């Protein structure tokens, strides 16, 4: 019998899991959400909701994965045999498949911009940055080549396995990400006039808080931890029974909150010091930040560092999305061989499925479904439909279907306060979290009058 592969250490698991969770959303979505939701007040709510909502959901996925020692699909079958609950695993796999198909397009854009930054062709151009971005994403041949290179690196890393591929890469990329953050924060905090940015980011403005702001903070609290797609079920299945799930989850949550905090310190002081305002998603990374760094001394070096940081975060998330698919179909008797074959198979299919998203800014820009481009429709489907639905179903599964004896068995190696606080946890996971997630779900679909 072939022994199941495991993380070599708790640190490797934490770095890989945090890398999966951090991704682009915590870095480029967070600043814009803060800017439109009350600054420091939103940040405080985000931290509170991450602890009260995100942490219990993360623990729920950890319980499912570690208790079974199986990936997402088999784990639900093992815990609830002869039922339809395993469709949560299929939902997570489908979500990751679709997400990676257009996520790899963004990864390709970052590759292009990173190459431009180190070659000196990004800053100090006569072409406005907005026009540069539009012409870049419209160049479908270059975009497809960059997307392909991004997927090839992801395939090779995942194909090497949990220890030699994902864990080894995360041990390099995650510390590198935080080192780059520190360098950029130091530079941002040395700019004249940066105090206004810090004040805006960390000073609560409760006058701007309304129902929609609260719902946005709730949504950010569980999206930032990558829960709802069963990736954490798969990753925790590789964790030794000797390790504490609670300490691991606290570390992952802490790293995500720290990343959001560092993103705010790196971006807001620089933006306010140079008289600019945050913008969302691609606008922040490819238009606003180049304009900011252009005005800095040594801006070419710092924009290259920032793009490297984004690229690191994008890769660590991409690894987990491909891993959930590969792990579900790897053959136990030939783990290494089947893993490599499946990595190439799924990676190739994902690349092909992602081509329409890549072309939706160029030759297929006029193609619209439901008033959205192919790229935007894929993003809307994942962010506003599939992920909230996955979170809701996992919360219900943990609250009502997860075998109590297995839950108690998992808690034996956890801190003593868990057994005392189990009733509170079950109250949250059974009643509070499903209602909260449902409200976030309806808000994301525009069905709430807020």
Automatic annotation (TrEMBL):
The keyword Membrane applies. The chain crosses the membrane at residues 12-30, 42-64, 85-115, 142-160, 172-194, 214-238, 250-276, 296-322, 342-365, 385-402, 422-448. This is Sodium-dependent transporter. It is found in: Membrane. One of its GO terms (cellular component) is membrane. Keywords: Membrane, Transmembrane, Transmembrane helix, Transport. It is a multi-pass membrane protein.
């Amino acid at each position: 019998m072939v022994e199941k592969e495991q993380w070599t250490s708790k640190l490797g698991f934490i770095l890989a899991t945090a890398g999966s969770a951090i991704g682009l959303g915590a870095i480029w979505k967070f600043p814009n959400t803060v800017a439109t939701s009350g600054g420091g007040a939103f940040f405080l709510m985000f931290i509170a909701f991450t602890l009260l909502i995100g942490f219990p959901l993360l623990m729920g996925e950890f319980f499912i994965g570690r208790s079974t020692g199986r990936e997402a699909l088999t784990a639900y079958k093992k815990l609830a045999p002869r039922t339809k609950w395993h469709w949560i695993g299929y939902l997570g796999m489908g979500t990751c498949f679709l997400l990676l198909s257009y996520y790899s397009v963004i990864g390709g854009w970052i590759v292009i911009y990173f190459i431009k930054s180190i070659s000196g062709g990004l800053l100090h151009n006569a072409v406005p940055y907005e026009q540069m971005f539009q012409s870049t994403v419209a160049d479908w041949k270059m975009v497809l080549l960059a997307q392909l290179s991004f997927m090839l690196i992801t395939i090779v890393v995942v194909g090497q396995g949990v220890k030699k591929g994902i864990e080894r890469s995360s041990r390099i990329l995650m510390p590198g990400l935080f080192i780059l953050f520190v360098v950029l924060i130091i530079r941002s905090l040395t700019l004249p006039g940066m105090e206004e940015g810090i004040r805006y980011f960390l000073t609560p403005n409760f006058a701007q808080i309304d129902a929609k702001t609260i719902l946005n903070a709730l949504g950010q609290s569980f999206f930032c931890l990558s829960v709802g797609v069963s990736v954490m079920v798969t990753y925790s299945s590789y964790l030794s029974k000797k390790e504490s799930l609670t300490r691991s989850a606290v570390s992952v949550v802490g790293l995500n909150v720290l990343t959001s905090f560092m993103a705010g310190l790196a971006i807001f002081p620089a933006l306010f010091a140079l008289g600019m305002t945050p913008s969302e998603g691609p606008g922040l990374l490819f238009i606003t930040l180049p304009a900011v760094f252009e005005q800095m001394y040594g801006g070419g070096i710092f924009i290259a560092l920032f793009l490297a940081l984004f690229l690191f975060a994008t890769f660590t998330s991409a690894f987990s999305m491909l891993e959930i698919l590969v792990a579900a179909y790897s053959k136990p008797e030939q783990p290494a061989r089947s893993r490599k074959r499946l990595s190439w198979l799924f990676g190739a299919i994902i690349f092909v499925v992602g081509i329409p998203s890549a072309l939706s800014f160029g030759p297929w820009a006029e193609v619209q479904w439901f008033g959205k481009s192919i790229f935007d429709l894929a993003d809307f489907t994942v962010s506003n439909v599939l992920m909230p639905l996955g979170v809701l179903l996992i919360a219900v599964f943990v609250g009502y279907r997860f075998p109590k004896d297995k839950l108690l068995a998992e808690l034996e190696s956890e801190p003593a306060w868990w057994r005392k606080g189990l009733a509170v946890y079950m109250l949250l996971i059974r009643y509070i979290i499903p209602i909260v997630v449902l409200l976030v779900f309806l808000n994301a679909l525009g069905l709430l009058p807020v």
